[in-house]
Amino acid sequence: MAAVVGVMGSGAGAAVPDGGAPAGSGGGPGAVPGPVRVVVVDDDALVRAGLRLILGGDPGLSVVGECADGQEAVAEVLRLRPDVVLMDVRMPRVDGLTALRTLRARGSAARVVVLTTFDADELVLRALREGAAGFLLKDTPPAQLVDAVRRVAAGEPALSPTVTAQLIASVAQPQDAGRRVAARRLLAGLTPRERDVALAVAEGLSNTEIAAQLHLGLATVKTHVGHLYAKLGAANRVQVARVVHDAGRP
Length: 250
Known about the structure:
The chain has about 250 residues and is of the alpha/beta class. The protein is about 50% helix and about 10% strand. The protein contains 12 helices and 6 strands. A 6-stranded parallel β-sheet has the order 2-1-3-4-5-6, with helices on both faces. Helix 9 packs across helix 11 (about 220-230). The chain is globular.
């Protein structure tokens, strides 16, 4: 326990003195090479300490800040410009989803992974609608958590298996005619290659898998995915998949 207390350093809301510069190295696709910079947001100090220990054990990850609520999180993320934010949902003052929405409105490029103890359907869907890059349960094994942070930093989605099952069930439900027409109109605005990539994203393939399947370079796939976000009004890959599923078969 003493080691955990020592690791917490100066406490919630304070930048972690790891030597990393707070600006210029994080915050999205234009980031320079180096450790993935992470901010941990949770109102439970023990949870924050546990996450620090898990993530700090990987040389490719660096926890650069901690916050105890969504209000602190918005200020720290905008100041530190991390690559990834692990965000709890239920917190005092400002909850995690409100903080996520505020960060998107303020133009933050940090990829937010919602981390919580429960996986209610509406909570999952709301988080993804707000632009979350992933949704993980707090009982996610440490190795999988580290892998998820790395994948999110690389632009891939990160969803717990139970969450993935919920999303599949959700998109499998019959859609109303209005949503189908709107989705098909969006897809009609894509180039043939962008539609190929959108279909592959909807199948859950990673960028590397899409590149192999479509015989494209990885950088080309990433460019197409970026075009999909812009043309479909999507904040993440799950939202791209929902447009494809809403469109259904011609």
